[in-house]
TrEMBL record:
<keyword id="KW-0963">Cytoplasm</keyword>
<dbReference type="InterPro" id="IPR022664">
    <property type="entry name" value="DapB_N_CS"/>
</dbReference>
<dbReference type="InterPro" id="IPR022663">
    <property type="entry name" value="DapB_C"/>
</dbReference>
<feature type="domain" description="Dihydrodipicolinate reductase C-terminal">
    <location>
        <begin position="122"/>
        <end position="255"/>
    </location>
</feature>
<keyword id="KW-0028">Amino-acid biosynthesis</keyword>
<dbReference type="GO" id="GO:0051287">
    <property type="term" value="F:NAD binding"/>
</dbReference>
<dbReference type="GO" id="GO:0005829">
    <property type="term" value="C:cytosol"/>
</dbReference>
<feature type="binding site">
    <location>
        <begin position="116"/>
        <end position="119"/>
    </location>
    <ligand>
        <name>NAD(+)</name>
    </ligand>
</feature>
<dbReference type="InterPro" id="IPR036291">
    <property type="entry name" value="NAD(P)-bd_dom_sf"/>
</dbReference>
<dbReference type="GO" id="GO:0009089">
    <property type="term" value="P:lysine biosynthetic process via diaminopimelate"/>
</dbReference>
<keyword id="KW-0457">Lysine biosynthesis</keyword>
<dbReference type="GO" id="GO:0008839">
    <property type="term" value="F:4-hydroxy-tetrahydrodipicolinate reductase"/>
</dbReference>
<feature type="binding site">
    <location>
        <begin position="7"/>
        <end position="12"/>
    </location>
    <ligand>
        <name>NAD(+)</name>
    </ligand>
</feature>
<comment type="pathway">
    <text>Amino-acid biosynthesis; L-lysine biosynthesis via DAP pathway; (S)-tetrahydrodipicolinate from L-aspartate: step 4/4.</text>
</comment>
<comment type="function">
    <text>Catalyzes the conversion of 4-hydroxy-tetrahydrodipicolinate (HTPA) to tetrahydrodipicolinate.</text>
</comment>
<feature type="active site" description="Proton donor">
    <location>
        <position position="152"/>
    </location>
</feature>
<feature type="active site" description="Proton donor/acceptor">
    <location>
        <position position="148"/>
    </location>
</feature>
């Protein structure tokens, strides 16, 4: 199969292309950059037979799926592109607005869409473990900490918010992403989820979930040291998504985590 990488010149776009160069079953159909970008027409270093291009130059008939690591500003256009060409899209952009989330739902009526704030297999598992833990432990305090490189713009990270959503589902709490701000002064409010954010150097990504109650605490943690983890996960998701009917999917669907959990609980 072949995938088009949108946001091909960025850190993650480059990581995906490098990972595709090592693949034998998945190829690159297009390395897409913004219209008017100075790189258009230049050879892709990892794949010299490919050139950077605008979305209008993509051969969509030869493209089985899209991996989008571009920007929030481009999300609406890229969802429209996926819908128009009936091309499944793995949407890896973080910091989406509520209107963009609704647009994903609308697009999913026409084509398979997988919005993934983090494409790591480990994070997908961490989300599920967090949900299970908060569903099991009563009267628990939940704190989420995340650390990323100094160039990351959104805070807390999309992954931290996803972990908070997972914790809320398990605990039966109402969570609004507008509440996702680092904790300030004052005592802890009952039922709240705290956030701690750090930005430093070239740290790829670290997330931890602290679950505490009187007398005991548990920490679930995940660390990434190489962006290839995200690239490999995005490619795995694209391979899976290419065979799905229209709908909105998650990384947990790709990995079959819900089925695995149901099987374990049935034993």
């Amino acid at each position: 199969m072949a995938v088009a990488v949108l946001g091909a010149a960025g850190r993650m776009g480059q990581a995906v292309i490098a990972a595709l160069a090592q693949q034998s079953t998945v190829s690159l159909s297009a390395a897409v950059v913004r219209e008017g970008d100075s790189r258009i027409g230049e050879a892709v270093v990892q794949m010299p037979n490919q050139q950077y291009c605008a979305a209008t130059a993509v051969d969509w008939q030869a493209t089985d799926a899209i991996i989008d690591f571009s920007s929030v500003a481009a999300v609406s256009d890229h969802l429209a592109l996926a819908s128009r060409h009936r091309c499944p899209i793995v949407l890896c952009t973080t910091g989406l607005s509520e209107s963009q989330q609704r647009l994903i739902d609308t697009t999913a009526n026409n084509v398979a869409v997988l919005p993934a704030r983090n494409t790591s297999v480990g994070i997908a598992l961490l989300e599920k473990l967090t949900e299970l833990a908060t569903a099991t432990l009563p009267d628990i305090d939940i704190e989420i900490a995340e650390t990323h490189h100094k160039h990351k713009k959104d805070a807390p990270s999309g992954t931290a918010i996803a972990l908070a959503e997972a914790a809320s589902r398990g605990a039966g709490l109402a969570f609004n992403r507008h509440q996702a701000t680092p904790r300030g002064e004052g005592e802890r409010e009952a039922g709240s989820i705290g956030f701690a954010v750090t930005r430093a150097a070239d740290i790829v990504g670290e997330h931890s979930v602290l679950l505490a109650r009187l007398g005991e605490r548990m920490i679930l943690e995940h660390r990434v040291s190489d962006r290839k983890i995200f690239a490999d996960g995005a490619i795995k998701a694209a391979q899976w998504l290419a065979h799905q009917t229209p709908g909105r999917y998650q990384m947990s669907d790709v990995l079959g985590l819900n089925h695995a959990l149901q099987r374990l609980l049935a034993e």
